[in-house]
Design brief:
The protein is an alpha+beta fold. It contains five helices and five strands, in the order βββααβααβα. It has two domains: 58 residues, no CATH class; 82 residues, Arc Repressor Mutant, subunit A (Orthogonal Bundle). InterPro entries: MethylDNA_cys_MeTrfase_DNA-bd, MethylDNA_cys_MeTrfase_DNAb, MGMT_N_sf, WH-like_DNA-bd_sf.
Length: 165
C-alpha cells in the first residue's frame, strides 16, 4: 500500500525505478531532497520551485548527463560544503573514493563519509559517485550492502553507466 500520510512533509514526490524522491521547498529554495522507498506515491508539485526540481529529477532519470540547476538552501558546515563542492566536480560515469576526496579537501576519509551522509541534496550533489577503496561503501549513513539506500546507490551508478556497479 502506498504511503500518503508522510507525503505532507514534501512539496513534491517523484516516483522512480528505485522508489521515490521527496522534495521539500522553503522560501523559494529547495530545502531538501530525500530518497524514499517505493511505498510512497508520487505527489504533484505544490509550488514553482518544487515543480522545477521535480522536472529536473525526471530529466536526470531519463538522461544521466542532465545537469541540475536549482536554487538550493545554503546548508551544512564549511567543511561539509567543501566536501560537497569536491563531489560536485566528479563527472557522470566516474567515481572517486572517500580517500580521493579526503586528499582533495585535506581531511580524513571517515570525515568525508560523514559529510556525504549529511548531503541534503542527493542527485544534485552526487554523493553516490563516492565509493569505498575496497568496494561500493555505504550511502546516506547506511552501509547495509542489501539495504534500500545502498540499492539506490547501485541503481544510480548503473544508470550513469559506471562499470562494475
Amino acid at each position: 500500500m502506498k504511503q500518503t500520510s508522510s507525503s505532507s512533509l514534501f512539496s513534491a514526490i517523484v516516483e522512480t525505478s528505485f522508489g521515490a524522491i521527496g522534495i521539500r521547498t522553503e522560501d523559494r529554495l529547495v530545502r531538501e531532497m530525500v530518497y524514499l522507498p517505493a511505498s510512497f506515491q508520487g505527489k504533484n508539485a505544490m509550488d514553482i520551485i518544487s515543480e522545477r526540481a521535480a522536472l529536473q529529477v525526471e530529466r536526470y532519470l531519463s538522461d544521466p548527463d542532465f545537469q541540475f540547476d536549482l536554487p538550493l538552501t545554503q546548508l551544512g558546515t564549511p567543511f561539509q560544503r567543501k566536501v560537497w563542492a569536491a563531489i560536485s566536480e566528479i563527472p557522470r560515469g566516474k567515481v572517486l573514493t572517500y580517500g580521493d576526496i579526503a586528499r582533495r579537501v585535506q581531511s580524513a576519509p571517515r570525515a568525508v563519509g560523514q559529510a556525504c551522509g549529511a548531503n541534503w541534496f542527493p542527485l544534485v550533489i552526487p554523493c553516490h559517485r563516492v565509493t569505498a577503496a575496497g568496494g561500493l561503501g555505504g550511502f546516506s549513513h547506511h552501509d547495509d550492502e542489501t539495504g534500500f539506500h545502498v540499492g539506490v546507490k547501485r541503481w544510480l551508478l548503473a544508470h550513469e553507466k559506471v562499470a562494475g556497479y
